[in-house]
Write a structure and sequence with these properties.
By secondary structure, the chain is α+β, with helices and mostly antiparallel strands. The chain is 35% helix and 29% strand.
Length: 103
């Protein structure tokens, strides 16, 4: 397995662990983008509506990802607010961690 994929898998596992119990009703989807060369990861979070309390929760999640991945990457968070994350969201093409069910 190549190093980029190994790093991505490590960060995905850490992010899933960090998200247990942390997903809120305002979250529509979450993906992670990992750049192995820069040792950086971005958690892309699609929100259904603005949420005044989400910022501190997302910082906590990013810190947990760092901890669970043994500081393999520097984690930042990018939020997006919109009606249809399945077409308009810039985080759509990265590794999916969470997506709300649509009926």
């Amino acid at each position: 397995m190549n190093q980029q994929l190994e790093l991505e898998n490590k960060v995905v596992l850490a992010a899933v662990q960090a998200l247990f119990g942390a997903v809120t009703p305002s979250m529509a989807a979450i993906t992670v983008q990992v750049d192995g060369e820069r040792e950086e990861a971005v958690l892309h979070v699609a929100l259904k509506h603005a949420d005044a309390t989400i910022g501190s929760l997302l910082e906590e999640i990013a810190d947990d990802v760092n901890q669970y991945s043994e500081d393999a990457v520097a984690v930042t968070v990018r939020t997006w607010v919109g009606d249809d994350w399945t077409t308009d969201w810039p985080g759509l093409d990265f590794r999916k961690l969470y997506a709300e069910l649509r009926r």
